[in-house]
């Protein structure tokens, strides 16, 4: 009976529902609720890698290239996947430690070159997501990025999508002492855009990021497959484009 009821609800409301997974089971969250929350806020903070920028495969390939360019073994099976959610300095240090190397500066230099070249060839922020950001700004929202990656990598991705101005008030890993799940980055992002944390919506794709948002007092929207069972989300979307379409089609 429960299965039949769920099927009926999904058929009846498919265009209005977004699925949110919690530890207590599946909750069907009306898209209208997401829109109301977003309309009501004054600021929006986006995580970058894997959230605003659909670039995890690109970043993984860039690490592979960078490791080889400094004369080290490439990525092992599932090695990069196990590090997703960490800041790029932490990822780099763990990769180097596993290879008994201290070539941090060289690795980061090659990483930046490989990533920027890949993004120039194929932008990782989709047109739909770029339109979403532009629409938020047009609607009077103050927007910035809070990322665990380096500013050069973030700026190259934003520039390719025509969003270079968003980077001016954004927070990169060089700007903080502690990466996610510490809330420092989001608190600094709140200060940079001049909006109190309780008036901000944040978009994240990792548990560490959601924890950082929650600790900062910012409402969280989940993006992607890593947050299927995460608690504390006001909504969850498979991709940023899905969230963009929900807002742009309002």
UniProtKB/TrEMBL annotation:
Q: Which Gene3D superfamilies match?
A: HAD superfamily/HAD-like, Putative phosphatase, domain 2
Q: What Gene Ontology terms describe what this protein does at the molecular function level?
A: sugar-phosphatase activity
Q: Which SUPFAM superfamilies match?
A: HAD-like
Q: Which domain of life is it from?
A: Bacteria
Q: Which UniProt keywords apply?
A: Hydrolase
PANTHER family linked: FRUCTOSE-1-PHOSPHATE PHOSPHATASE (PTHR43481), GLYCEROL-1-PHOSPHATE PHOSPHOHYDROLASE 1-RELATED (PTHR43481:SF4)
Q: What is this protein called?
A: HAD hydrolase, family IA, variant 3
> What broad taxonomic lineage does this protein's source fall under?
Bacteria, Bacillati, Actinomycetota, Actinomycetes, Mycobacteriales
């Amino acid at each position: 009976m429960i299965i039949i009821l769920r099927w009926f609800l999904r058929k009846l409301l498919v265009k209005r529902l977004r699925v949110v997974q919690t530890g207590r089971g599946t909750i069907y969250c009306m898209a209208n609720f997401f829109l109301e929350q977003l309309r009501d806020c004054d600021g929006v903070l986006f995580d970058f890698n894997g959230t605003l920028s659909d670039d995890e495969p690109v970043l993984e390939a860039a690490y592979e290239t960078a490791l080889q360019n400094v004369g080290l073994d490439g990525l092992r099976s599932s090695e990069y996947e196990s590090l997703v959610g960490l800041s790029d300095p932490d990822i780099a240090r763990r990769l180097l430690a596993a290879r008994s190397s201290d070539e941090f500066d060289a690795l980061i230099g090659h990483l930046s070159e490989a990533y920027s070249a890949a993004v120039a060839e194929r932008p990782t922020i989709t047109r739909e997501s770029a339109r979403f950001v532009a629409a938020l700004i047009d609607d009077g929202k103050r927007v910035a990025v809070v990322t665990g990656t380096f500013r050069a990598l973030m700026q190259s991705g934003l520039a390719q999508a025509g969003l270079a101005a968003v980077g001016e008030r954004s927070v990169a890993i060089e700007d903080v002492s502690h990466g996610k799940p510490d809330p420092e980055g989001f608190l600094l992002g709140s200060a940079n855009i001049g909006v109190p944390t309780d008036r901000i919506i944040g978009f994240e794709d990792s548990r560490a990021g959601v924890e950082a948002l929650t600790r900062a007092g910012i409402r969280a929207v989940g993006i992607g497959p890593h947050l299927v069972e995460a608690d504390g989300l006001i909504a969850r979307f498979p991709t940023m484009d899905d969230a963009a379409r929900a807002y742009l089609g309002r």
